[in-house]
Give the backbone structure.
Amino acid sequence: MSKIAFVTGATSGIGRATAEYLAEEGYDLVICGRRADRLKELADKVSVKTHSLVFDVRDRAAACEAIESLPAAWKAIDVLINNAGNAHGLSSFQNGNIDDWDAMIDINVKGLLYVSKAIVPGMIERGRGHVVNIGSIAGKEVYPNGNVYCASKHAVDAVNNGMRLDLNGTGVKVSQVCPGLVETEFSMVRFKGDEERSKSVYEGFDALTANDIADLIRFIVTRPAHVNISDTIIFPAAQAGSTIVDRSQKS
Ligand code: NDP
Ligand code: 8X3
């Protein structure tokens, strides 16, 4: 019987690449995001069965209804990839935009909680499952102007650890992947479509790609049943911390 992976934020970047890599491993996919056209494109590309759910993770009722609407054949989710999220803005605390703060807390933290609460009980009932939370180096360190994004990812770090403690003994594994700089649509979202500013984030070094992160996630979810990789930090070789990037060696 094939396994089912549920991927949030599958319309772009890390989520999309992860869906593709898990399809290669034979997982049927529940793919989620707000952009239905992108989900259709992904569904057409992969060679496994897919079920698309279009919802905004910050809308609690919509998230619950979408997950409840899954047909019986799609309900026994084996792997949950909690990936949907973004940074909105990069400003000092005193100049921060409260709408951006709301977006980051609502999407990165509350969205992850809503989706997990709808899926994890089924995993417990079945006595097996794996939740992979996409955190960030921003959940391990705080950097200037990162304030609320860092807070949201520190919350993911805490929720990840809390889930792992509470789910111990249930057969459900909990893992976190914390990337450094990955070139996706992330900076275009953070800088509200400012292409030049977005490009500058990745200048002068080889940033990670979405596939690099998907490869790590694939490794984590394909370990034997007795192995849990509980936490990982993955950097580009040129990065040593949130604010330490060697931009002099671009190949
Ligand atoms: P992208 O912007 O490329 O992808 C973000 C994904 O999240 C999209 O599929 C988007 O789908 C989804 N998403 C955003 N907001 C919502 C929402 N309200 N409801 C539902 N889905 C939403 O960025 P990345 O792939 O880089 O980011 C993925 C994750 O990786 C995030 O959690 C991010 O914080 C984390 N991360 C990224 C790093 C990087 O440098 N890029 C580094 C460390 C962590 P749609 O817009 O269709 O709804
Ligand atoms: C994304 C990486 O350094 O922009 O989480 O916060 S960073």
